From TrEMBL:
UniProt keyword annotations, A-Z: Hydrolase
Cellular compartments per GO CC: cytosol
High-level lineage: Bacteria, Bacillati, Bacillota, Bacilli, Bacillales
Listed PANTHER family: 2-IMINOBUTANOATE/2-IMINOPROPANOATE DEAMINASE RIDA, PROTEIN HMF1-RELATED
Protein name: 2-iminobutanoate/2-iminopropanoate deaminase
Gene that this polypeptide is encoded by: yabJ_2
Amino acid sequence: MKSILEVGNLKSNGHYAFATIHQNTVYVSGQFAINPETREKEFGPIEEETLQALKNVEMIVEAAGSKKEKILRMTLYISDIELWDKVDAVYTEFFGEHQPARTVVPTNELHFGFKIEIDAISYI
């Protein structure tokens, strides 16, 4: 088992890895809309937060030796079910023809006040 604790300028602020690799499977921890260059939280419209969180997942799976087309499953936690259509539109454009298994979980609120958090499972 291997843990990825840093990706670019991003570093874990808690007791967790960005991803854990076990038997050629990559388990990505929940990602928010945090700018990987500045490490700043990027609050904004749900479309922008969704795209940045997806890009962060992609950056992490690439650091693990995978790519977004090898993502098998994702869980998207959204702060309001009314955001579903906007999230789905960004997600669809981001993945194109690739369609990982997916669960969308509406919540009351997410850490730091983000509107979305995304985790993933990929293979190498």
